[in-house]
Amino acid sequence: MTAMKQNKVTVVGAGLAGSEAAYQIASRGVDVTLYDIKPDGKTPAHASELFGELVCSNSLRSAESTNAAGMLKKELRRLGSLIMEAADASAVPAGSALAVNREIFSAYITDKIKSCKNIEVVCAEVKDIPDDGICVIASGPLTTEALAKKIAAFFGSEGLYFFDAAAPIVDAETIDFNTVFAQSRYGKGDADYLNCPFDKESYLKFYESLVNAEEAELHDFDREQQKKLIVFEGCMPIEIMAKRGVDTLRFGPMKPVGLTDPKTGREPYACVQLRAENTDKTMYNLVGFQTHLKIPEQKRVFRMIPGLENAEFLRYGVMHRNTYINSPGNLTPVYSAVSRPDLFFAGQMTGVEGYIESASSGFVAGINAAMRYLGKDQIIFPETTVIGSLAAYVSRGGSGKFQPMNANFGLIKPLEKKVKGGKPARNQALYERGMSDLEKFAEESGL
Length: 447
Description:
Elements: E1 9-12, H1 16-27, E2 32-36, E3 59-62, H2 68-79, H3 82-89, E4 91-92, E5 97-100, H4 102-114, E6 119-123, E7 135-137, H5 145-154, E8 160-166, E9 169-171, E10 181-182, E11 193-198, H6 200-211, H7 223-227, H8 238-242, E12 270-276, E13 283-286, H9 295-302, E14 313-315, E15 318-324, E16 336-337, E17 340-345, H10 355-373, H11 386-396, H12 422-445
Parallel strand pairs: 1-2, 1-7, 2-6, 7-17
Antiparallel strand pairs: 3-5, 4-5, 8-15, 9-13, 9-14, 10-11, 11-12, 12-13, 16-17
Helix pairs in contact: 1-10, 2-10, 2-12, 3-4
């Protein structure tokens, strides 16, 4: 590996978190050396040479303010997030969600990083934690084995591993549009989803084939780690979820609620939704169908979905490793190591789960790495914001064993008074209070 330059802030990894961190540091006039293995190397789940590559889905989830993920986007957008800037520049229709054209999204981030005069990009695998100097490690859920071992040793533990699964993508021209129908759940959006309706008989046949399908072998991991397989609920393989019970999928990714099949005028027994992967809608993603089935099994089973009988798969589902730190007590609310304040971590390895959540951690770590370099006070976001509540969760954890967490209103500091109108009214009140607090905080801290 190229010797690290300690007269600059070092950032390891150019995924969403690392790119955001590097950009925020550089935006404050501080020089950055950004290390990434691309383009000379790639992890098992990556296909592109671009920075900020989206692997699991093109959806950045809800854009609505009464959803915590939507609120987080608004917070980051207000503060000048590179990731949100890229998302807005590459957005594609997706109902009430924010989805992007993945290539345009990553190309935007890559161009911004490489054209920034304060950022030097070095293509190299980082195999060790720098001994000194301010550093942000954002090497991602697929941190290479050498660096993962060093991180585990630094925190005095073995480290925790779990596996994510990516969903297949089909060619739009091979979808049977006489069977599928365009409609967003509950009529939201502009019918941005394609829906594959099941009746009871076809669903039960599909279910039996799915739960009995053969899974692919796990490669590049030793047998002991395979025995310790942990699957995060937010990205669970469809076949594992199905084995929990015959109706589990109908209350999960195949729920028909809020949909009406125009051919029958009724709600389907079950339904698979397809979401456009690009602006031209030439490719569609099977929503919630992350999988680790063998490729022939994917072709056989997923072609049992109504409308996909002759589907051509442009990409098959893959399984890949994620690594995260037991962060409570080890990381602070600015994502720095308790035992070494000049060493920051960002991204999914900190225990935030999701693309925008990773960007949020990179944003906070990047700003505070710059503040440390400039000799200024650290910036801790209020826990009435999603940014602050995620950082607080990472540093403190919850009850029981620490697990990765998505943005949700349950993490945010409760309202001082109860509001009438149930959950929607409560969420709206949390949103309004949080955005108001963020505005005041941003002005006071100069953000």
